[in-house]
Amino acid sequence: MFPLRFDVGGQAVEVRVKTLLNAGYAGRSQDDVAAHVAELAELGVPAPTRTPCLYPVAPYLAMQTDAVPVQHGRTSGEAEWALVITDDDVLLTAACDHTDRELEVHGVAWSKQAGPDVLGREAWRLADVEDHLDELTLTAWAGGEKIQDGTLADLLTPHYWLDELRERGLAEPGTVLISGTIPMTPGVDQFATTWRVDLADPRTGDTITCSYAVNPMPEPVA
């Protein structure tokens, strides 16, 4: 598998991913999450047995890429942040969990395995932003149209997930956790040919971006 490389304040940091985890149903308000689970159930998406959820996925699905190949037209991203544990630090970056919506109705864990987690090429040290985490903004565009817009206050905190990782013996170098996402704006076509996610710090004006094209693969010969 290829290592991830981050620019952290001008310093290059390389991480070989050993464990990749996707959080799900990870809104700060679990009452809102329960309502969302009920909405998804009406669309045929199986309800989880508990929330929040944590889905292990193959480590090679953590990518820094400009293009995501897809097998059909019903895949889309999700605006998220990612925790990256290095040998001596914890980093925070932008991420986009590209998900197969056709598979999602059969099993969320399966759908997570069918697409990559695209991460930004820059990162911040968690310690440098932890005193104002809830002010950080998370925004996504599908095909150039804004589809998600919120703050980290909408999601369970990085420290919540670090505690969860410690309990499971997973808070170790090479672990990457993707945060779960915020609500999408109704009426925007999520099945777009491009996706972009911005993680921004309004105090400094700094922004970490991950963006990519969605490229259909050739039809199978079978």
TrEMBL record:
InterPro entries: DUF2848, Fumarylacetoacetase_C_sf. This is DUF2848 domain-containing protein.
